[in-house]
Specification:
alpha/beta; Aspartate Aminotransferase, domain 1; Aspartate Aminotransferase, domain 2; 2 domains; seven-stranded mixed sheet; four-stranded antiparallel sheet; 12 helices; 13 strands; about 15% strand; globular
């Protein structure tokens, strides 16, 4: 199992600080998430039904034509490499690095050749690829904004890369009649054409800046966009994510994942959150302002961020391990990265949490 943020219980044991006394800044989850209402009892008593309107709500929110609900985007991250191998055999995959490590792990575990593509403060190395080099990859996997560097890409650039990859071939077939993908399992499926290159874009941190998303283009053959309710909506525990892609690909992915991928209560909450436009519109500027405030606080204490998004800031420093441990002794958990040495700071959620972070940084500043 790879390391991730949010291991608060382990930190509580390691540092001898009660669980309730911690400030967890390690996950990049909105600390003031969508307010969850009471959940109807029947959602616990009935099997989930995939024609309950959740896919339609997701399509409306993301501006996509087709959406498949999955048990967090992690489920798709693990299943997509298996699906590609099932359809086309092993391939060569370029994965942004540093980045969310589960992508490279999943493609490698499925037997594909994984090539790390460096992502720096400027343009990533992939930006220099010419047409011939781009075609040397079967799949490109990007995190947009990148986690943990915050690297972003112009949508026109992403679409150009997709065009190069898709030139290998593509999916062919008629889409189903609805967004729900509720056709009987084992029935006729859309036919697939010769192998086409994939561009997989993980947009888990995109919600605060939706204009930069490629969700509206995800119906194009070979373009796959992953979205998550965990970060922006603060619903990480619900384990709800979406795959936005061409209908034929989603049919195959649905069959691979099996029935009831997302539980009924989580589907109910996700539908309500996706339809709550007033909350979404109010949350976006608040998060962007909070991220700017966090960058100022860190810079004031000699830790200027090297990148970030609306939900986190990243500090690259040789002292990352030392600072991580020092903050942990004050009951503040950050996300530590070793290569390169860096820290990711999530957003404090209350005035007292902002004060607590500022005071702790003051004590450990050089």
């Amino acid at each position: 199992m790879l390391e991730h943020g949010g291991r608060l219980r382990r930190a509580a044991v390691e540092y001898g600080i009660p669980l309730a006394d911690w400030l967890d800044l390690s996950t990049g989850v909105n600390p003031n998430g969508w307010p969850v209402p009471p959940i109807p009892a029947e959602t616990w008593a009935r099997l989930p039904e995939d024609d309950d309107g959740l896919s339609e709500a997701a399509c409306a929110y993301y501006g996509a034509r087709h959406a498949l609900a999955v048990a967090g985007s992690q489920a798709a991250i693990q299943a997509l490499p298996l699906l590609y191998r099932q359809l086309h055999g092993p391939c060569r995959v370029g994965v942004a690095a540093p980045g969310y490590a589960e992508h490279a792990q999943a493609w490698g575990t499925a037997g594909h050749e994984v090539v790390n593509i460096p992502v720096g403060a400027g343009l990533p190395a992939i930006a220099t690829l010419d047409r011939g080099q781009a075609r040397s990859y079967d799949v490109l996997v990007l995190i947009h904004p990148n986690n943990p560097t915050g690297q972003t890409y112009a949508p026109t650039t992403l679409l150009a890369w997709h065009e190069r990859l898709a030139a290998r071939g593509g999916w062919r077939g008629q889409p189903p009649r609805s967004h729900s993908f509720a056709a009987p399992r084992g029935g006729a499926q859309p036919a697939l054409g010769r192998p086409g290159g994939w561009l997989v874009i993980d947009e888990a941190f995109m919600d605060a800046t939706p204009a930069s998303s490629l969700a509206a283009h995800a119906h194009l053959p070979g373009l796959i966009v992953l979205r998550s309710l965990g970060k922006f909506f603060g619903l990480a525990g619900a384990r709800v994510g979406f795959v936005l892609a061409e209908a034929a690909l989603l049919e195959r992915l649905r069959d691979l994942l099996g029935p009831w991928a997302v539980c009924g209560p989580a589907r109910h909450i996700a539908s309500l959150a996706l339809r709550d436009t007033p909350w979404q519109d109010a949350a976006r500027p608040k998060l962007i302002a909070a991220a700017a405030r966090l960058a100022d606080v860190l810079a004031h204490h000699g830790l200027p961020p090297s990148g970030g998004s609306a939900l986190f800031q990243r500090v690259e420093t040789a002292r990352a391990g030392e600072i991580h441990a020092a903050l942990a002794r004050h009951g503040i958990l950050t996300r530590l990265f070793e290569h390169p040495a860096s820290l990711r700071f999530g957003l404090p959620g209350t005035a007292s949490e902002w004060t607590r972070l500022d005071a702790a940084l003051a004590k450990i500043s050089p």
